[in-house]
Specification:
By secondary structure, the chain is of the alpha/beta class. It contains seven helices and twelve strands. Strands 1, 2, 3, 4, 6, 8, 11 and 12 form an eight-stranded mixed beta sheet that branches. Strands 5-7 form a two-stranded parallel sheet. Strands 9-10 form a two-stranded antiparallel ribbon. The two termini are 28 Å apart.
Amino acid sequence: MVTITAEDLAALKAYDTPTICNALEIVAPSRRATGFTTRPLICRDPSMPPMVGFARTATIRSLTPASPAVAARREPYYEYVAKDPLPSISVIQDLDPIPGFGAFWGEVNTAIHKGLGCEGVVTDGSIRDLDQCAPGFQLLAGMVAPSHAHVHVEDFGCDVNIYGMAVSDGDIIHADRHGAVVIPTEVLKDIAGAVDLLVRREAVVLACARAEDFDIHKLKKAMANAREIH
C-alpha cells in the first residue's frame, strides 16, 4: 500500500486541477473520461490556491425535518470530519429532488470544519453567508441560497457522486475554481513526473505558436517534435 503524507498532498497544490487531469491521462489512462466533476460549480474565491486532501463524504437533505435519530448524527459526523488522516476535504451530495434548497454551508459550518482540519468543500448543494465564511476555507457548490431550511446530515462515510465525480471515504481530492478530481492513491507520487513531461511537450508547441512566423507547417513540425519528448 502506498503511504501518502501531508507533504505529498501539499506538493500537489503547485498545480491547478486541469493540469492534474492532464497528468492523470498519462499515469492512469483509464481516468481520461472519469473521476472529475462535469458541471460548473460556484467558487467562493477563485483567487485561492488549489485544495488537496482526503475526502470526508456525506449526504444531506433539507426539504423536510430530520427525525430525532437522523438529527442525532450531527455530532458523530463532526467526529468523523476530525479523524485522521488530515488535511481533509468535505464532499457532500444533496439527495433532495431540489438540490441546494437549504444550505448546509455558511458562517458556522465553515468555521467548524476549518477548525477540524478541513480545507474546503465540494458539493452539489448550496452555500450562503459568503462574506462571513471562514477565511481560507474554499467552497465549490452547485448554487447560492439564503436559507438552511431543514438541512441535516443523512449519512456520512458513504459513497457520493458530485456532478459525475464518484467519491468514497478517504479518496484524495484535488480541487480549484475549475472543479474537482479524484487522484488514485497508487499514482499520486507519479503526478509530478507526468506534469514535467507535459510542460516540456507543451513548451515546444507554445513557443512555435507564439512566434511571429508561425504557420501550419511549423505547427506540424512542432507537434511532431513534441511527441518525441519522453
